[in-house]
Amino acid sequence: MTHRPSGPSTLPGQTMSDTPSINAYLVTADKDGHVTAGPTTITTDQLPDQDIEIAVEWSSLNFKDTLAAAGNRRVAGDLPHVPGIDAAGTVVADGSKVLVTGYGLGAPGWGGWAERIRVPANWVCVRPEGLSARAAMQLGTAGLTAAMAVEAIALGQVEPDSGPVLVTGATGGVGLLSVALLSHLGFQVVASTGKADQHEMLKRMGAAEIIDRDEVLRDADGPLASARWAAAVDVVGGDTLSAVIRTTRPQAVVAACGLVGGVDITATVYPFLLRGVTLAGIDSAGCPGPRRTELWNRLADAWALEGLDEITQEVSLDQLDTSIALMRNGDHIGRTIVRLADDD
Question: pTM higher than 0.85, yes or no?
Answer without folding.
Answer: yes
